């Protein structure tokens, strides 16, 4: 498959349906085989990431709740940027989703709070 021209970029709905069908038949393993068997001109890695981050039936599609946000904050304080470790504590959430949420919503807020605490304690 390396010699072939692999498709890159956005996934089509038809590709999603085909990948979902083949994962249903073959299971969540051997992604290169799934990519070949399904006829998708995608790499096994691309198929695996598409499945894990977008197509898995157990993914939560709603916004991150306040409770989940607190868990992210607590675990990030303990482990740092170990997104896959944090994701294990939030069923239905992916490490990529948590990382993106951290970077867009939580990082600046925690930096501001830490600066406020530092300024307050220096006074």
- The tally of structural domains comes to 2
What is the global morphology? elongated
What is the tally of beta strands? 0
Which CATH architecture of the largest domain is right?
Orthogonal Bundle
**What sequence of helices (H) and strands (E) makes up the elements?**
HHHHHH
| Total count of helical runs of at least 4 residues | 6
CATH class wording of the largest domain: Mainly Alpha
Mean pLDDT: 90
Please name the fourth-level CATH homologous superfamily of the largest domain: Homeodomain-like
Give a quick account of the main beta sheet: strands, pairing sense, barrel closure.
none
Q: Which bin fits the share of residues in helices? A: 55-70%
Strand content: under 5%
How far is the first residue's CA from the last residue's CA? 64 Å
Helix-and-strand structural type:
mainly alpha
Low-confidence stretches: none
Main location: nucleus
Domain Myb-like: 3-55, 56-106
GO cellular component, one term: nucleus
Organism: Vitis vinifera
């Amino acid at each position: 498959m390396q010699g072939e021209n692999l498709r890159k970029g956005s996934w089509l709905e038809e590709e999603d349906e085909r990948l979902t069908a083949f994962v249903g038949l073959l299971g969540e393993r051997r992604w290169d085989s799934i990519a070949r068997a399904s006829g998708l001109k995608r790499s096994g890695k691309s198929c695996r990431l598409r499945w894990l981050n977008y197509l898995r039936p157990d993914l939560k599609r709603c916004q991150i709740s306040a409770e989940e946000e607190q868990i992210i904050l607590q675990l990030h304080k303990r482990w740092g940027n170990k997104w896959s470790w944090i994701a294990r504590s939030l069923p239905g959430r992916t490490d990529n989703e948590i990382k993106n949420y951290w970077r867009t919503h939580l990082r600046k807020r925690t930096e501001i709070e830490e600066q406020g605490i530092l300024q307050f304690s220096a006074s």
